[in-house]
From TrEMBL:
Official protein name in the record: Ribulose-phosphate 3-epimerase
NCBIfam families linked to this entry: PRK05581.1-4 (NF004076), rpe (TIGR01163)
Cofactor names: a divalent metal cation; Fe(2+); Mn(2+); Co(2+)
Manner of cofactor binding, per the entry note: Binds 1 divalent metal cation per subunit.
Annotated positions binding a divalent metal cation: H32, D34, H65, D174
Active-site annotation: D34 (proton acceptor), D174 (proton donor)
Amino acid sequence: MIRIAPSILSADFAQLGTEIKKLEAAGADMIHIDVMDGHFVPNLTFGPPVVAALRQFTALTFDVHLMVNNPQDLIAPFARAGADLITVHAETAPHLNRLLQNIKETGSKAAVALNPATPLSMVEEVLTEVDMILVMSVNPGFGGQKFIPSVLDKLARLRHELDKRKLTVDLQVDGGINAATAPQVIAAGANILVAGSAVFGAPDMKAAIAMLRNAE
Ligand code: DX5
Ligand code: ZN
């Protein structure tokens, strides 16, 4: 079962509530919320108050992707704001095991993200602690970037390792996902696809989400 997590980074920021309603009507499986701090990545987006304000618009899972240098300070505020799943970057977390426990203590699901150049070995010791691994297929910071093809082999190696260890961990991919790349990442083992520009840039959002979900 492939799930689609549209990223509201590509939404109209003046109408976020309406945009989320539209995503729900178009069949989105979850809402991907890209949190950027202007330090870990060169861009700024949403804080906990924005997420709390959006919570009333849908019951869909809020998938909060933290691209921030100090994730430990933001876990509780985002959980209180309504995050159902919180993803931290391995590159920002020297005490990754503790951070994942902290996320789970809030009642939220816990995930780790890896930048394109970060090796899988960074998450090897926490695969039993996570609900999901996010493999970035662009360098994070902006929507609309080009998919990095070397990520396909990385996805396949991680899926193989998860299967070998019989772990039910979701494998999410984020960045440059479209009609051309979706079949490739699904074949490599991803089961949750984040898509920003491919959903918001499409003439028909519902058709775009269905196309990504059924890509093979
Ligand atoms: C990149 C973000 C992505 C981004 C994806 O820093 O993490 O979630 O919104 O956008 P597209 O699908 O346009 O590459
Ligand atoms: Zn993201």
